[in-house]
Amino acid sequence: MKRQPWRLQDASGEWLKLSPNSRLRLDSAEAIRDAALLGLGLAYLPTFLAANYLNDGRLQQLLQAYGTEEVPVHAIYPSKQHLPPKVRGFIDLMVERWKC
Prior knowledge:
There is one protein chain. The model has no long low-confidence stretch (mean pLDDT 88). The protein is extended and about 50 Å long. By secondary structure, it is an alpha+beta fold. The chain contains three helices and three strands.
């Protein structure tokens, strides 16, 4: 499994690439979150996976002075012409929740 560097943006707008040394390598964001909850190290996680744990204090945010790159999310479906109402409702909900 190829390890991806962490890309962080400092206050001046410069991008930094960090490749922390680790013994544990996981390819699931949920597994990475769970490892962090068990105290096994630092985790680079999307907000939606960490928010509840940050709010209740089980996780703590580090490197707050740095920004991260945004990762786009796409809804892919066969055709707008025959879009089922459930799919349209789901897309609308995600746009509202994620403030797209």
